[in-house]
């Protein structure tokens, strides 16, 4: 059984640190920024790969610190993602994060993670997060691609229609739920 609990974070209100500036750091930072372009994000690394620098150019709020990680970098953070090539450093950072009740993800190291990144399907306002409980990120990627393909773009119109209706509904909470269930009961998605 997958016992992970998914939540949807407002990353523009949280302060996230990515330790590392190479391929894996780019993968994790781009996963965050693809979903939350306004994410408040800092990367610290003595070396930033060209690809990372090019990608991050489009996100002026992202702060780059070109030096080795220091424990003071953890001050004021809400989330930390370790993505360097130094495992001992990751173990040390994870330890201090635990002491400070800071949520920490160590890329590709499930044992050290408080949370995993998921595979994310996005269609307008609809977002679906997929987890395989760490069993197979590749399968998660395949399922994402499948869902992206079968969920129609028109889902956004449906969502906007429902939003408009729910704003106009009068009556008590139970009556609203009944009306909304009635409205959506025959909804079938076809491509
Ligand atoms: C979803 C996604 C999010 C993201 O990172 O953005 C993500 N990994 C992605 C891709 C991917 N990662 C890897 C491959 C190579 C093929 C393969 O191994 O399958 C591919 C596929 C590819 O790149 O094509 C390597 C890998 N990953 C982990 C390990 C360690 C281990 O399993 O022990 C190793 C071996 C490293 C090594 O060999 O040394 C571990 C984790 N990777 C997770 C997330 C978490 C579990 C998510 C879940 O429950 O499914 C978890 C536990 C922790 C974390 O990192 O958060 C993103 C897909 C985005 C998308 O396209 O939709
Ligand atoms: N590239 C991949 O897709 C991949 C896949 C599986 C596993 N890995 C493993 O993941 C690790 C990272 O891979 P990568 O390709 O991102 O490497 P990389 O060389 O591109 O990046 C490593 C980053 O870590 C930074 N770093 C090193 N010491 C640091 C410190 N003290 N403080 C802050 N940053 C520091 C470096 O400056 C660099 O930016 C490696 O151990 C690699 O074997 C990589």
Automatic annotation (TrEMBL):
Keyword check for NAD: yes
- What EC designation does it have? 1.3.1.76
First-tier enzyme category under EC: oxidoreductase
Q: Which domain of life is it from?
A: Bacteria
Question: Is NAD one of the keywords?
Answer: yes
Keywords in alphabetical order, please.
NAD, Oxidoreductase, Porphyrin biosynthesis
Q: Where is the Siroheme synthase central domain?
A: 124-149
Q: Which reaction does it catalyse?
A: precorrin-2 + NAD(+) = sirohydrochlorin + NADH + 2 H(+)
Query: In which pathway is this protein known to take part?
Result: Porphyrin-containing compound metabolism; siroheme biosynthesis; sirohydrochlorin from precorrin-2: step 1/1
Database matches in Pfam families: NAD_binding_7 (PF13241), Sirohm_synth_M (PF14824)
Query: SUPFAM superfamilies from the xrefs?
Result: NAD(P)-binding Rossmann-fold domains, Siroheme synthase middle domains-like
The cross-references to PANTHER family, in alphabetical order and at most eight, read:
SIROHEME BIOSYNTHESIS PROTEIN MET8
Database matches in NCBIfam families? cysG_Nterm (TIGR01470)
Record's protein name? precorrin-2 dehydrogenase
């Amino acid at each position: 059984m997958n016992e992970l609990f998914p939540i949807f974070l407002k990353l523009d209100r949280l302060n996230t640190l990515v330790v590392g500036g190479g391929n894996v750091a780019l993968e994790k930072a781009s996963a965050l920024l693809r979903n939350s372009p306004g994410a408040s994000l800092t990367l610290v690394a003595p070396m930033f790969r060209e690809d990372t620098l090019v990608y991050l150019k489009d996100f002026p709020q992202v702060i780059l610190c070109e030096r080795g990680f220091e424990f003071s970098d953890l001050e004021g953070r809400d989330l930390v993602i370790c993505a360097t090539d130094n495992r001992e450093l990751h173990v040390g950072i994870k330890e201090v994060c635990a002491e400070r009740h800071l949520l920490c993800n160590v890329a590709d190291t499930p044992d050290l993670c408080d949370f995993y990144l998921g595979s994310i399907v996005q269609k307008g306002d609809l977002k679906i997060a997929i987890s395989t409980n760490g069993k197979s990120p590749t399968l998660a990627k395949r399922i994402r691609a499948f869902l992206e393909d079968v969920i129609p773009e028109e889902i956004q119109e449906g969502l906007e229609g429902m939003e408009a209706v729910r704003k106009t509904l009068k009556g008590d909470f139970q009556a609203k739920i009944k009306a909304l269930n009635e409205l959506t009961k025959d909804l079938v998605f076809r491509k």
